[in-house]
Amino acid sequence: MKRSEVRNILVAGGGMMGKNIAFVFSSEPSFRVTVYDIRETDVPGGIRLSCAQLLEKGVLDPGELEERLGRIGFTTDLDSEAVKSADLVVEAVFEDMGVKRETFAKLEARCRPETIFCTNTSVMSPSEISRELKYRERFVGTHFWNPGHLIPLVEVVKSDATSDETAQTVMEVLSDVGKKPVLCRKDVPGFIANRMQHALWREAISIVENGIADAETVDLAVKYSFGLRLGQLGPMENADMVGTDLTWSIHDYILRDLEDSHRPSPLLTKLKEEGKLGFKTGEGFQKWTPEETAASAAALNEYLIDMLYS
Ligand SMILES: NC(=O)c1ccc[n+]([C@@H]2O[C@H](COP(=O)([O-])OP(=O)(O)OC[C@H]3O[C@@H](n4cnc5c(N)ncnc54)[C@H](O)[C@@H]3O)[C@@H](O)[C@H]2O)c1
Does ligand 1 have an atom closer than 6 angstroms to the CB of 14? Predict the structure, then answer.
């Protein structure tokens, strides 16, 4: 299917990600967006909540929000017209292989053979999720990042069967709704960005575990140094900026000392086993009050809005 043929968008799963993904697609006036969920869900209410800070900061006009909400429908009926006529489906149901496979099997039995299927899985293999489908070439991963209505990146992940045309169409649709799609050419765990993110987290945890610095200091070291640059200067451009010769010398000296464990760290395992689960329980690597956890989420949204819209 070509980009020009895409009009009807179905978002399967109206949870935290699904609502925000539906809102993203509603930015294109020619799209008719429907959220499908197995249970009744207040999609407009959830979107209004997500958009509160955008409204407060004047980035989103209340009239535009209402207009966009008017383009988003909701159904719990798999046999509805919205499912049958979907051109592109983005699945955001529970992160469970069985649930995802079953959802796509049911959708494939009802949608047209041309319909493009996308999965918003965070970590699962699109090749595995689509293994039992008939039209595997029109199945692709679309990994939106949370909060889905703010973070621009969507990783478009080819499975072992995704056609170039499917990937291309999805990239174009995502660009048209204001996202920054990037193509992940191989179906590997963590796709592109989470591989890098968790390489950093592994080292950060190791620094704490080995008593080199405490958790708060690790975060300060990131926020006030390369974290500031990253939004403008990625690691590959940075390596060229300082020179591949200097990068080689640094790696020749330091890589042998960096954390390279293939298992979750003993410290992380201990915290998990002791029920120190972070914000959820008030303690993880650090202690957190309910006020601090609420302030953290609000501060992140505010920071993202200032960065993206100021
Ligand atoms: N939360 C994140 O930070 C994040 C980030 C990126 C990707 N994801 C991925 O997005 C997907 C959804 O995550 P979420 O955080 O929105 O979860 P969620 O639990 O908030 O929402 C899941 C929704 O799917 C619905 N659902 C479950 N089974 C269904 C079915 N068979 N058919 C239709 N709807 C069904 C549920 O009723 C619920 O509303 C997951 O695959 C997750 O890994 C999550």
Answer: yes
| Token digits of residue 7 | 């009009």
Taking CA 228 as the corner, what is the angle to CA 223 and CA 233, rounded to the nearest 5 degrees?
A: 140
| CA–CA gap between residue 166 and residue 306 (Å, rounded) | 34
Task: Work out the percent of the chain whose per-residue pLDDT is above 90.
Answer: 99
CB hemisphere CA count around 168 (13 angstroms):
7
Q: Long-range contacts of range 134-137, CB-CB < 8 Å, 24 or more positions apart?
A: 134/108, 135/108, 136/161, 136/162, 137/161, 137/162, 137/163, 137/166
Q: Is 238 a catalytic residue?
A: no
Which residue has the CA at smallest separation from atom 21 of ligand 1?
Answer: 15
Q: What type of residue sits at position 129? A: I
- Tens of pLDDT along 58-85? 999 999 999 999 999 999 999 999 999 9
- Domain at 3-184: CATH architecture: 3-Layer(aba) Sandwich (3.40)
CATH code for the domain defined by 194-309: 1.10.1040.10
Q: What angle do CA 192, 193, 197 make, to 5 degrees?
A: 130
pLDDT at 310 over 90: no
pLDDT digits 0-9 by tens, 179-199: 999 999 999 999 999 999 999
**pTM of the model as a whole:** 0.95
Can you give the residue ranges of every domain in the chain? 3-184, 194-309
Residue of 122, 163, 265, 301 marked catalytic:
122
9 in Cβ contact with 87 (< 8 Å): yes
Provide the Cα torsion 265, 266, 271, 277; round to 10°: 20
